[in-house]
Design goal:
single chain, alpha/beta, FAD/NAD(P)-binding domain, 8-stranded mixed sheet, 6-stranded mixed sheet, 32% helix
Length: 443
């Protein structure tokens, strides 16, 4: 099965070279799969979903679990993202959700979403994971005066319909408690919300899974799955894991090669991040950047950014459509220009790090959690909100695996497979058209 993007983005044997990888040790004690083994449940994918699911299965339900990861633990998108714990994991408006699913189901979806934020925070607290947690809210900033009315409207809906604590700030008010800049014309805040070092969180979670009895194998890419006598043979590194059940938890890095029912259901979208050198106190003050809360620029094509504890500045945006190392460098330069246009007082600040990852978008525009006809379970499609959604989803998936039920008591928006993309070889063309459209609107 050919890759959707350039092979550079799928080099599982190469470190990511993200800023996060400079803050902790990824040369861990997890081994490669080097022998044939047996287990009850095998989890494919060592990100938030897979590790949370495996941890819950082993600790809460005393299940025999093996987790297998193609790269090192901390290679995938769970350890590459910006660390924003924000809502909500769907690419559709609240009005669209009301129309399509009804008010009660939409309210249940938002209730589950808020549960996701608290679930991530509770994992950090329960296991005392030192992951540089900052902030107590999320901010959404209007990039143009015309967006401010939309922000006020969103704040009212969040508060009235879903009971979410929100507050609206004028441009002048946000100048004082947030930051100044060329694309700041007022903002809203909502709770819960915070930011983390995503790799430290993942490694902390993996350590707890290991302590709970999960067998973890890294640098072991699954190449084939066979079904024999009601059992699965999962093949990696020319060795076999024999299991009764399989969990697919690879999200955006799934390559349409293992499960026919899941093939062509995901559009992996590249997301890029750049991080500056540490800013001086004078540079920080030049834009009065006084908050450590994560911030979304309320464009259709979002910018997202935050100040880190060491005064480095993180800035993220949608990536390119090629996926090569060269295209990533070109995109990072464009992002640097965008960042310095928004924050012109930092025009001489150097960029120390740039990298990218894949987020999973689907035709459903919402996450998918469920079970195929066989003993194959899945959770994916977090629409770029994995910190909020993936750990919670992994835990919900564990409940589904050990129950006799075919469905979970969660919002229908989360449940079931998305429809396959029509003419899936045109997925990048669909994405290009969408990006051009949203870019035109933003201008």
């Amino acid at each position: 099965m050919s890759n959707l993007y350039h092979e550079d983005i799928y080099k599982f044997d190469k470190p990511v070279k993200s800023y996060w990888e400079t803050t902790c040790n990824t040369n861990n004690n997890y081994n490669k799969l080097e022998k044939n083994i047996q287990t009850n449940i095998v989890v494919i994918g060592g990100g938030y979903t897979g590790i949370s699911c495996a941890l819950s299965l082993a600790k809460n339900f005393n299940e025999d679990v093996v987790l297998i990861e193609a790269g090192h633990i901390g290679w995938g998108s769970s350890a590459r993202n910006a660390g924003f714990c924000c809502i909500y994991p769907a690419k559709m408006s609240v009005a669209t959700m009301f129309k399509k699913f009804g008010k009660e189901e939409t309210k249940k979806f938002f209730k589950n979403t808020i549960e996701g934020s608290y679930f991530t925070k509770n994992l950090i607290d329960e296991y005392k994971i030192n992951c540089d947690l900052t902030g107590d809210s999320n901010y959404e900033v209007a990039p143009h005066p015309s967006y401010f009315e939309s922000i006020k409207e969103e704040s009212l809906i969040y508060k009235k319909e879903f009971g979410i604590e929100t507050k609206v700030y004028s441009k002048e008010e946000f100048n004082e408690i947030g930051h100044t800049g060329e694309e700041q014309f007022g903002a809203l805040s909502y709770k819960p919300g915070f930011a983390i070092n995503p790799l430290k969180f993942l490694l902390g979670l993996a350590e707890e899974a290991k302590k709970s009895g999960v067998q973890i194998y890294q640098k072991s890419k699954v190449t084939k799955i066979e079904k024999k006598l009601e059992k699965f043979n999962v093949i990696a590194n020319d060795h076999i894991i024999t299991s009764n059940k399989i969990v697919m938890a690879t999200n955006g890095f799934y390559k349409d090669d293992l499960f026919p029912d899941l093939n062509n259901t995901i559009l992996p979208v590249i997301s890029n991040i750049i991080i500056t050198r540490p800013l001086t106190n004078e540079e920080v003050k030049s834009h009065n950047f006084v908050t450590y809360n994560p911030i979304l620029n309320f464009r259709n094509l979002l910018f997202y950014y935050r100040l880190l504890k060491d005064n480095r500045f993180l800035f993220g945006a949608r990536g390119d459509l090629i996926g090569s190392e060269q295209s990533s460098k070109i995109k990072s330069k464009k992002m640097e220009e965008q960042m310095k246009k928004v924050f012109p007082n930092w025009k001489n600040v150097e960029i120390d790090f740039h990298w990218r990852g894949l987020v999973a978008v689907t035709t459903k525009f919402a996450p998918s959690i469920g079970k195929l006809d066989d003993e194959i379970y899945y959770s994916f499609g977090y629409q770029a909100n994995g910190v909020n959604t993936a750990p919670w989803s992994g835990n919900e998936l564990a409940k589904l695996i050990v129950s006799n039920s075919k469905k979970l008591n969660i919002s229908k928006l989360y449940q079931g497979l998305p429809k396959k993309f029509p003419f899936p070889f045109l997925r990048l063309l669909y994405l290009r058209i969408a990006l051009l459209y949203y870019s035109f609107i933003d201008k």
